[in-house]
Amino acid sequence: MRIGEIAALVGLTTRAIRHYHHVGLLPEPERRPNGYRAYSVRDAVLLARVRRLTELGLSLDEVRDALADDAGRELAEVLEELDADLARQEADIRERRCRLSALLAEPPGATGPVSPALAALLAQAPRTDSPSAAKDREYLTLMDATSSGSQEIFALLGTLVADPAVVELYERLDALAEAPADDPRIAPLAADLMAAVPEELFAAIPEDGAVVTGFKEALLAEYTPAQAEVVGRLMDAFMERGRG
């Protein structure tokens, strides 16, 4: 192969290849009688590896060290490694596209990039403009970013969020926005919310009470007095049943 051909094959410019020759990263190939460089398959493999390593942010000195580890290896072995590397890149691209697809399907006001598990959960939720539902999405996003056990919880919440009746519960909570902390609707709503929680979810409650307490205080501060009373009762009952 000539320099233009190998450059097109591996996705580099001829200028970059000449620079790699200049700095000693790529040995100069033999020249044909007409003076053109004659590149081999191994040269193409080497250049492809250089490109991938530089795309990962390695300096040319770091690339040189990495390539030194490949010295003396059989071509087939290097090709197999590169093929495995491409397979990993393909899998990563598929996962990123799945996450992008889930994000595009999110309702207006969604909180941004989330894990595939949370994206799948949010996709099941009925569409609603409820402010309380929007708060829940924010808390789930926070859990997604900070809790290692969130994936299990999201899976268990699937049945709950997919139930259209959950919208009514959010709307009842919204209706307490201007109510006092002793409103008679508080107790029935807290009980109905508790009854809607899947039994399997209680086993997934974290045991670190200090962390949960701190989160509870921050969460309740986001609600009006009557709403905070409902959410506080729910969290207390939730923790008590989880410990049982």
From TrEMBL:
Matching PROSITE patterns: HTH_MERR_2 (PS50937)
InterPro entries (UniProt xref): DNA-bd_dom_put_sf, MerR-type_HTH_dom, MerR_fam
Coiled coil: 72-99
Domain HTH merR-type: 1-69
Record SUPFAM superfamilies: Putative DNA-binding domain
SMART domains hit by this protein: HTH_MERR (SM00422)
Keyword Ribonucleoprotein: no
PANTHER family: HTH MERR-TYPE DOMAIN-CONTAINING PROTEIN (PTHR30204:SF93), REDOX-CYCLING DRUG-SENSING TRANSCRIPTIONAL ACTIVATOR SOXR (PTHR30204)
Protein name: MerR family transcriptional regulator
Species in which this protein is naturally found: Streptomyces pyxinicus
Lineage: Bacteria, Bacillati, Actinomycetota, Actinomycetes, Kitasatosporales
